[in-house]
Amino acid sequence: MSAPSKKLGFVEQVILLALMISMVALSIDVMLPALFNISQDLHAENPNDRQYIIAAVFLGLAIGQLFYGPLSDSTGRKPAIYIGFGLFLIGCLLSIFAENFTVMLIGRLLQGLGVASPRIVSLALIRDQYEGREMARFVSLVMTVFILVPVLAPALGQLILIFAEWRMIFVVLFILGLATLIWFSLRQEETLAVEKRARLSIKRIWQAANEVVRTRAAFGFTMVGGFIFSAFLGYLTMSQQIFQDQYGVGEMFAVYFGLLALALGAASFVNARLVMRFGMRKLSYYALVMLTLISVSFMVYTYAWNGHPPLWTLVAFFMVIFFCIGILFGNFNAMAMEPLGHIAGVAAAVIGSITTFVSMGLGTVIAQLYDGTVFPLVSSFAVLGALSLAAMIWTVRTSPNTSGHE
Questions:
Q1: CATH architecture classification, 10-185+201-398
Q2: For the whole model, what pTM was predicted?
Q3: What tens digit of pLDDT does each residue of 227-278 get?
Q4: 42 with 104: CB under 8 angstroms?
Q5: Residue 6 pLDDT > 70, yes or no?
Q6: In the chain, domain spans
Q7: What is the pLDDT of residue 345?
Q8: Quick one: pLDDT at residue 273?
Q9: Which of 77, 129, 136, 265 is the most buried (most CB within 10 A)?
Q10: Cα–Cα distance, 189 to 285 (Å, whole number)
């Protein structure tokens, strides 16, 4: 393909990387309205089995992140992203032509393996160019653009279902993935110079992973991010059942889901404005305190309503909680990566993989506890919020800020 006509500008890069990272969210959220249809057509055995259509993507994401970071440190950022998009497109094709539930899950696993590449390599690409609060600001701006995807994706999926069957959703994913790949290949320059690349070896990967785990700030903030995302993943996985099965909102599901996603986007935008002034740790601490206290209070309230509180109170609770999570997303990634700039690719891989494995494991357990009430989900926000707060306090106390960025 031809070389870019001019250097990629700041705004275009934010939009491009946001779109690439959002392929994960798009692959999940666009088909939430279709989960029941897919599980019925492909003869899933249990009503909760539809959740595995989501979980399979996260499993692929967790596995894939371990490989793309080290690969990008060796070959450069762009080749690693090309490989990932290739796997994603193959996974889309498998899902389009799936005739049973097993083939569908294999296709979803490949999609997860594929989107792991832009998800993790994009963070390394950002780390190549920014650090500290500047990196947190860039990530927050990316998240602000990214949040348009979960706002619009369920509505897109619902719209497709009005005019076509669920397989067309995967056709749309295939087209968007191919278009994004072409845009990236034409416009994004390679950010890792040849002289800075490291030979790909199992020994180097093990040594780098060991450094990530032994660096208390990196490991501590990674675990905090994993705990928080676990509860959020539980929500993602069971949201269709909560809104459509439990509360009977029907096609309004996309509206409720998009409204709640706006809270995440607003928080990311606010964080991008405030992080340069107050620092990542202070903002994250207060957001965690608020999330935990509100979740504990609403857990008691939910128990009083036998797990079925009025819909408007549940939506209000989610909006506040998701605003807090929006503050936390970009900051915890940036704080975990901050001391590891010299091994950015493999560090991003290990951090992302640990976060995803933790959140996928706990989040899947939370979702499988769904019993027709929201009590398991609300309780998970309370318990994991408290655990995250304790882990953050431990991390900060054992990892004094010496960089001047936080």
A1: Up-down Bundle (1.20)
A2: 0.82
A3: 988 999 999 889 999 999 999 998 899 999 988 888 887 887 788 778 777 8
A4: yes
A5: no
A6: 10-185+201-398
A7: 64
A8: 79
A9: 136
A10: 36
Distance between CA atoms of residues 182 and 104, nearest Å? 26
pLDDT at 401 over 70: no
What is the model's pLDDT at position 144?
67
Question: What local confidence, expressed as pLDDT, does residue 387 receive?
Answer: 93
Residues 6+ apart with CB under 8 A from 348: 65, 69, 120, 121, 123, 124, 127, 337
pLDDT mean over 57-81:
87
399 pLDDT band (50/70/90 cuts)? Answer: low
Q: In the predicted model, what is the mean pLDDT of the chain?
A: 86
Q: Distance between CA atoms of 34 and 36, rounded to whole angstroms? A: 6
How many other CB atoms are found less than 10 A from the CB of residue 129?
Answer: 11
Q: Which amino acid is at 150?
A: P
The whole-number pLDDT of residue 400 equals 53
Q: Above 70 in pLDDT, residue 19?
A: yes
CB neighbourhood size of 110 (10 A): 24
Question: Hey, what long-range contacts does 127-131 have (CB within 8 A, 24 or more apart)?
Answer: 127/337, 127/341, 127/344, 127/348, 128/77, 128/191, 128/192, 128/344, 129/191, 131/338, 131/341, 131/405
Nearest CA among 153, 163, 157, 75 for reference residue 121: 75
